[in-house]
Design goal:
Helix content: 40-55%
Number of strands: 15
Radius of gyration: 22 Å
Number of helices: 17
Strand content: 15-25%
Distance between the termini: 44 Å
Shape: globular
Length: 429
Amino acid sequence: MNAPLLARAVPVQGCDAPPVLRERGQREVFCGLTGIMWLHRKIQDAFFLIVGSRTCAHLMQSAAGVMIFAEPRFATAIIEEKDLAGLADANAELDAVVTRLLERRPDIKLLFLVGSCPSEVIKLDLSRAALRLGQRFAPQVRVLNYSGSGIETTFTQGEDACLTALVPTLPAEPAGSEKSLLVVGVLADAVEDQFRRLFRAMGIERVAFLPARRAGEMPAVGPDTSYLLVQPFLGETARALENRGAMRLAAPFPLGAEGTTGWLRAAANAFGVTDAAFEAAIAAPRERANRALEHSRAALAGRRIFFFPDSQLEIPIARFLHRELGMELVEVGTPYLHKDHLAADLALLPAGVQLSEGQDVDRQLDRCLAAAPDITVCGLGLANPLEDRGLTTKWAIELVFTPIQGFEQAGDLAELFARPLNRRAALEV
């Protein structure tokens, strides 16, 4: 664990940007393996094989709530004591596990070998294993690898690592292709369908999503590709796409009516959609979103909220809660602050709001308890102790498991924050 350092305020670039409190100390983070929970549901013929310990297996079983008779698209290849002691050939054992898996599950077309803390500790080279196994099982199965280790990352970076591994395998767009739009980040299928309909209504027909729902349908990418991020934690994926020639469209993230409008507007501007066509496409769903927000506004307006750094969704959600629901931002902490990707959301935060990047959990707990906010967004490990001190909490991981992007989900996103306050009010009666 890194020794705590004195926090220091570092200004974000831009004359109107709020100061950022940079902290480096003890952290409370969830494991990056948990990204598999939403990834394995999205890519329907992929399988995620974690190379880890029994603890990894128990974590995934608990996080997914998988019953013993279910057959999910993930599993754990257990590293035993003999592997740690060097008494067995871990690569040979891994090859045997993969062979049995693919014989049993011929529906698998894309296999991810997912590194963990234990596999990294024993220096098991999963990139070489993926290359070896990929050659053996091609063309029926493509084998890739990425790290889900929680040693130095926050839990949403598992998705970033997975999509980064996918990007080099995407087909190249033919030279001189018509301009295309790529939407990057895992979305619930229903949300993906909603966005596809909105783009089609605007007249943008060449739209693809990364990841696709099936391994054989992954999108092409090249210099004629413009892409929109749906998640602020996809920094390495964005870098890999730009190395392939794709161009990012700067936009706020599609949370709430305002954020979704700005996100769609970025695509409309890039593809020459007229103002009239844009308004015609979004007017009805935007109005539904605004009506849905009214239900929670009375419970949230004027309430004070504190964000511990956890999911990297904190800044766009804070923007949504403040501007569309009238909440007061006490502190907005985030594990990593990507200034370029978050520029549009940062510009919409209120002047003087306290931002923090990284974590020194003891200092942040002191600030949170002193501020006594109406609701605190935090990881699972902090929620019960804070509730015991009389604070109302919201689990950060719930914001990743729940579909929250787009117009139709704006009311659901607001309700996630109104519900804990309504519950506490009911209990205090």
